Records
---
Amino acid sequence: MTKALLEVDNLSVGYRTASGIQMAVDDVSFRVDRGGSLGLVGESGCGKTTIGMALMGLLASNATIVSGQVRFEGEDLTAVSDQRMRQIRWRRIAMIFQAAMNALNPVHRVQDQIAEAIITHEPELSSHAVAHRARSLFELVKIPADRLQGYPHQFSGGMRQRVIIAMALACNPSLIIADEPTTALDVIVQNQILNAIGTFQKEMNIGMIFISHDLAVVADVCTHIGVMHAGSLVEYGTRQEVLDCPGHPYTRMLVGSLLTLSDEPADLSGLVCPAGSNGPVAAAGCPVQAMCPSSTAACQRGQAQWVELSPTHRVRCQQAGEELFR
Ligand SMILES: Nc1ncnc2c1ncn2[C@@H]1O[C@H](COP(=O)(O)OP(=O)(O)OP(=O)(O)O)[C@@H](O)[C@H]1O
């Protein structure tokens, strides 16, 4: 197996609240290879953004990494100093935030904002080199270079999101975290952005974590898929494995809801998430037991263990090997 670009091992993150530490991410492990892409998929509140922020060293002040390691290019990011993390953030790991297109400064030309992103991290570059880099980034995200002189309000939502992607790529990172980068866009523009993301990711051979609540979107751009529920990763595998042979009842629900034109709608009646079942980590038992029709008393008691379905495909469900799920 090749050396991973990023290895996350048993990461648990909690938030200090008035009622004590509330766990938002529980014992999550995955890897991302150079040029590989992992889609983290799950409903709102299941901990996806918290993972992204932990990797960027940008967790909220009331957050705490309770346990785990994040090895990136040979360094454990949970143990590096703030100063070292500032050198890694944006230069080596960049993030595209949810609805970031609204964060562009309306009073500055787009060119100046991209230039600032480059100069902040590479002050040694000449103005000629910075302008050249800005033009190539625009080319990469498919915006004509003559638009660089424009102001954000002269750009459509899709174009502004491309500008944000260009800014995230400004320092040539080796890992990019894209958190719901297309959620606020209409379907056509969403497709164009996904194509742009797929292109730069392959052309620049960078690793990517793509965060989304939408399995169809993740399936479009990612080589690997991690399914999350209530702070836990419940299934992890290659795109093919997860889509063709989903082993976890929750993944089956997600895959069953992916319709093609010729499909009959899947019967999902037994797998409805009760309100509040996807919040922070449950105190005990399998995180999915509240909505799983196959849940047993054992599922309510003990945390589900991982079952390996193949060297690259694992499922966190104590019944994954049972006839029930075949
Ligand atoms: N600063 C905070 N203090 C306390 N709890 C928080 C804080 N930030 C997030 N949480 C809680 O942590 C859990 C995970 O949130 P997170 O934003 O990581 O989920 P998510 O899957 O990214 O959801 P979304 O897609 O809606 O952003 C949620 O229950 C959320 O309410």
---
Amino acid sequence: MFKRLPGDEARNLVSTTPDTAIVFRPAVVKTPAIITFIIYIWRFLSALVRATWRHPVAVAVPVALGVAWYWYGWPVAASLSGTVAMALASWAFLDRPSFARLVGYRLLAWWRLVWIYRRHWQPVMIVSGLGRHIRGRDYLPRLGKVTCTSWADMVTVRMLKGQAVKDWADRTDHLAHGFGAKSCRVALSHAGRLTLTFPRSDPLASPLPALPIPDEPTVGPVEIGKDEDGRPWRLKVHGTHVLVAGATGAGKGSIIWSVIRSLLPAADAGLVELWALDPKLMELSYGRALFGSRYAATPEECAGLLDEAVCVMQKRAARFAGLQRSHTPTVVDPFVLVVVDEVAFLTAYQSDRQLRQRISAALATLTTQGRAVGVGVMAALQDPRKEVMNIRNLFPDKIALRLDESEQVDMVLGDGARDRGALADRISPVPELGAGVGYVRLEASPEPVRVRAAYVSDHDIRAMVDAYAQRGEAA
Ligand SMILES: Nc1ncnc2c1ncn2[C@@H]1O[C@H](COP(=O)(O)OP(=O)(O)OP(=O)(O)O)[C@@H](O)[C@H]1O
């Protein structure tokens, strides 16, 4: 026997099917044909005005050709279109970047809007659960503008009322596959509006050679690679602390060495001091001469060097107190960058408990108080779990290179970073494709940015040592 549910009787009473006792017929109000006609004409005219307003050139070209055909016949129209096509082809040939910016990417964006996004919008939204089909009506998020760059499509979307960014972030896989892309990133642009980024190609797929050493001493954001838009990746090291996390072979060394490389002229001019802690005795020992006496490898030496850095910091803080609130690098008070390779060797894997506590306390002191007085820490580590690195949140700026597990991404970059598209666990383990590739999340911006560090080879490091260690000795 089926259980009778409350309301079953009412369902039989109020029914639209003719075999039940009481037949309920909803009133049908017929809309006069003229009103429907006016609505369609209105929609057509407003779409026409909108298209002319938004795409004046795209509308003017076919209209001009149509007018030429009508008034002067098809040969004139054909030769006119030939001339326009030739002019565009020569423009593309002579100045590709400006042609791509002003014509190419706009045409591509229009084509992809029509052929990819508008065509698949309804099924992708319904199947992914971002749209609803209720009583024969579709309620879909509004597809906005599509903009193309050299590597990706940026699609603006107006969310349905009541939707949250997380609803979209949870469905990036559905969106990517639905629109034929490898991945999708979600960013909030305004209240209720999102920008979805669908990469078409990977501009960071090939390794970058080491960047030239700057001509002028610079402590400001240093150029160490490229971001996904093809712009130089400039990392701020003065006035912050940077944590670099990545599995073995992820390319942590390329970030450390690219930063050191770009600070060399400033170090040479006395505006920067590079202090190196190299408990693995692998990475930094290669350029040991660049650090002079500020190089430590054994845990005891590392603890000593960190204590020294805390001392410098505290003396400066005492001198600056009440006089200045931020640090400007000078020869008297240079910016001190403490570089720590594999910090977990000193904090988690260190068997001597007292030494471990001393090192952790020094690192915590530097990362909480150092940046205002010109002492920064840049630490690299493989395993970002809290048990291994309990002070990871004290680093304002974080970089996640290739990681082994998806949960580690948020551990490094902060909550929600993976949902926003920082897929560090999906970076290729093949060094040519993925080493040095990562996501940066800066203190000032919650959006993770995909980047690739330039590769500083052993040969480059030797050349750096030859050029700058000798100068340091001579000075
Ligand atoms: N930016 C880069 N671009 C291209 N290839 C790179 C880059 N960085 C590193 N590689 C390649 O990847 C290999 C591993 O790099 P690296 O030793 O720096 O990784 P790591 O993260 O420091 O690893 P580990 O923690 O084991 O020391 C290098 O030998 C090099 O061939």
